Amino acid sequence: MALLLNLNVSLSSKISQKPCLCLSTPHPPQCSLRRYHAPQALNKNHLEGSPSLIYSLGESISRATLLALLSASLFVVDPALAFKGGGPYGSEVTRGQDLSGKDFSGRTLIRQDFKTSILRQTNFKGAKLLGASFFDADLTGSDLSDADLRGADFSLANVTKANLTNANLEGALATGNTSFKGTNITGADFTDVPLRDDQREYLCKAADGVNPTTGNATRETLLCN
């Protein structure tokens, strides 16, 4: 019995000498005034011998958990902000938008995403649109003259009455029901553009000029007879 008493007194003395987590007010008598300093070593006996230490430690863990959750929340991206633009060079949201009459002339919009957008009377004159997507977009009356459209996707797009004068469309896509009705293609380069026979036949009727960048004649790039 005496041995057990001495052990408890010795243990209590050791705990009281350790700085604990003084989070409550007023501070427990055995706590150091140094805040937020945990004991150097905690074991089962220490915790059993000091209720105030257990309370302080529990409160510290709760606060630490809350701070961790708040910090983590700062790195969670709002899904609505995840799509900043259609491509690595574009800062605007351009997919599925009504951008009629907008001025993108001379802009660098490589791989920009204009899928399903309304682009009537939009100005793309001289713009760099390599790999841009105009899939199912409405480009009626748009100005694409002198634009670099290599590898661009015009699948299912409405390019009616647009201006493709001197545009470079090498390797562009025009599959599906793409319409070039009434479009000015003077000097446009259609090298390696897959076209339906009826599209090619229609474009060949209006094909003329030589592309100033590639030096290729429009009729030759369309494989006109």
Automatic annotation (TrEMBL):
A GO cellular component term found in this entry reads: chloroplast thylakoid
The protein's matches in Pfam families, at most eight in alphabetical order, are given as:
Pentapeptide
Which SUPFAM superfamilies does the entry mention? Pentapeptide repeat-like
Superkingdom: Eukaryota
Listed transmembrane segments: none
Cross-referenced InterPro entries: 5peptide_repeat, At2g44920-like
PANTHER family per record: THYLAKOID LUMENAL 15 KDA PROTEIN 1, CHLOROPLASTIC
Name listed for the protein in its UniProt record: Thylakoid lumenal 15 kDa protein 1, chloroplastic
Q: Can you name the source organism?
A: Rhamnella rubrinervis
What taxonomic ancestry is recorded? Answer: Eukaryota, Viridiplantae, Streptophyta, Embryophyta, Tracheophyta
